[in-house]
Amino acid sequence: MTTPRTVLVTGGNRGIGHAIAARFVAEGHRVAVTARNGSGPSGSVTVKADVTDGDSLDAAIAHVEAELGTIEVLVANAGITKDTLLMRMTDEDFEEVINTNLVGVFKVVKRCIKSMIKAKHGRIILISSVVGLYGSPGQVNYASSKSALIGFARSITRELGSRGITANVVAPGFINTDMTRELPEAQQASYLSSIPAGRFAEPEEVAAAVSWLASDDAAYISGAVIPVDGGLGMGH
User: Which pTM value belongs to this model?
Assistant: First the structure.
């Protein structure tokens, strides 16, 4: 990115979110992360927030903007899983995942666009997943929430494209994070066999795609879905 920006990454305390925040810090941006616990990478400001709680987001965003300036780049990364087959999935299992992964994105994006509209500049990047379009057994709730982010980003693009604001989706495949490492070895091997690249991605590879979408170079890209999945989804 050619211009130093104020960046907010939700769920920036671990995994992909932590790598994204670290990348922006390394590039010289002013970076804040939200976390329910833990903290972001060195050089970032961590604010406690729960994306499902509007009041906590209001307080967090006010704190970030007072300390670092108005938010110009928002990376909506916070998400949860509650995997189980549909027949066993409770109403709460479904609603909690939708509430964090979709409603939480709505709440944080809505609160950040006001200053972007005023500045006539903004980058909104939503972290989805290959399963949002590919599908995955046991993940009806998660896949639904991640698929919905595409319609969300494309609607923002149509609403706010003329204001210098872009909205894009990054859809990671299987990434070398704690969540993937906790899977049984046989399951990991099964997943690996279906990935043309023959390996899991590093979180930094997702961060590189996010960094590019946030940059001045990507000013004419909006409403796009960028897969970082080693060829697994093949554009599905």
Answer: 0.96
